[in-house]
Amino acid sequence: MTVPLELPKAIDLSHHLNSIARNRFASPLKDILNYMAQPGMISLAGGLPHPSLFPFAEANVSVYPANADLKHGVVPSVDEQLTLTIPKTAPVKGALDLNSVQQYGHSLGLPELRAWLHQFTRDVFSPAYSNFEILLHEGNTAAWAKVCRLLLDAGDYILLEEFSFPSSFGPWVPEGCKGVPVKMDAHGLRADDLERVLSEWETTHPGERRPRVLYTIPQGQNPAGLSMPGDRMRDVYEVCRKYDIIIVDDGPYSCLTFREFEITPEPVVPVAETGEQFRKTLATSFLKYDYEGRVIRLDSFSKTLAPGSRLGYFVANPIFIERLLRATEVESQTPSGWSMAIVSQLLHTWGQDGYLQWLSNLRDSYELRRNIMCAALAKRFVALPADKYASAVPGCEGVALYPRGTDPATIKPDQAPVASFVPPAGGMFLWIKFYLSGAPRFRELQTAQHEDPENAFMGEMWKALADNLVLLTPGSYYVVPASSGKATTSQRGAEPAVGHFRFAFSYNDRVEMEEGIRRVEEVASKLWGY
């Protein structure tokens, strides 16, 4: 798609609003705030606490410089650190101060921060329509819950990747909504499978309303660590346009997209880039292909600054933003004034170039952690390219892990490895698929005609790993709640004789990661009997 020089405006998508969203009205108390700023106004209307009674006189926060080298975990010296100061009263009109940021404010969020983020979104993610708007929120988990209350009616179906973030299920499952999993490959959600699901809907779900919302984590997908390339995003977008689907782009990992991984005996240290180089290579968002305004992007500072800030922002068309604003006025009012003030001061101090440099260095740090974990797996198993050594093993992509001591020359193309994984293209997680047919205990469960031998075996393996003092997240946590109510592996039509675990490389240091992988391999060697 060639983007015209003069971008179009978003189309009217108000028919997607549910009855709750359509019936919301502006908070009359918030309307009064607009009049309070008028010169000469004496307000006896608002129940605002007097700022002289706030116990905070001044806020001083020491922060890293934007170009801090983050790969090696060295905290910048005090001399290198910057100090952000927020006085109780602004020294000049329009400057940020504690009196204003600690007071009840407009539910859109701090104007200075919204303006900064609007420019950043335009420059970096380049939405393909002109009138996108920004609304601050309290983190993507809360933001997604608001979107569910905006678009979904009780009993609706919702499209998701076949494995997805478990907390994303929470807002819609209690409402009786039902998940529809869409298959993934090494490049994320498959446009062809999305087309299949939607084109066959009247046959597979006669008399039931087709899904109208796709929830996706396109970059650094949780749990799989996959990232959609631009052409895949474009294809998915056009399928959604064809069937009038709203795309919810959950983007906390968008700035943590990695360069290609190669199997090496030692972890490769990423080569540093400038902020401008990073911007040019940064993975894109669905916003880039959205010329109708059918994408709601959820962005967050949880992975780029700190999760405890509980701060993020929506990017969406004006109709959706206005309805989300009405909900915010009566549900959460506004994000924390402290968080907005500190983040705003930080971003204005760093500037856009500085923030991009910070993101580039941050990406390098997590990319190195990915490389450390992958190299640890290659050290404990025999790690080989799946397309060369496991080409006849169904669904085996990326790197195949064989028992230590295996001679690659003896491997047959249909010989299942112990496990395989697609090297994470972003995010914080490694999604490892285990091939259970080689484990004697799994075959016992099959012979005994266990109702769900895959789930039973993976439960036993998880317990064995925990007993060996290594904790992983079970893959079953990420299975989309079945619209049919069927829960076993075979009933769901899931791939047989495989199971998954999610490995996180975001927190532990190299020594801990390598020891953790050693313990995993120790358990695997006992269960697979090698």
Automatic annotation (TrEMBL):
Keywords: Aminotransferase, Pyridoxal phosphate, Transferase. Residues 93-405 form the Aminotransferase class I/classII large domain. Its cofactor is pyridoxal 5'-phosphate. The keyword Lyase does not apply. One of its GO terms (biological process) is alpha-amino acid metabolic process. GO terms for molecular function: pyridoxal phosphate binding; transaminase activity. PANTHER family: AMINOTRANSFERASE (PTHR42790), AROMATIC AMINO ACID AMINOTRANSFERASE, HYPOTHETICAL (EUROFUNG) (PTHR42790:SF1). Belongs to the class-I pyridoxal-phosphate-dependent aminotransferase family. This is Aminotransferase class I/classII large domain-containing protein. It comes from Rhodotorula graminis (strain WP1).
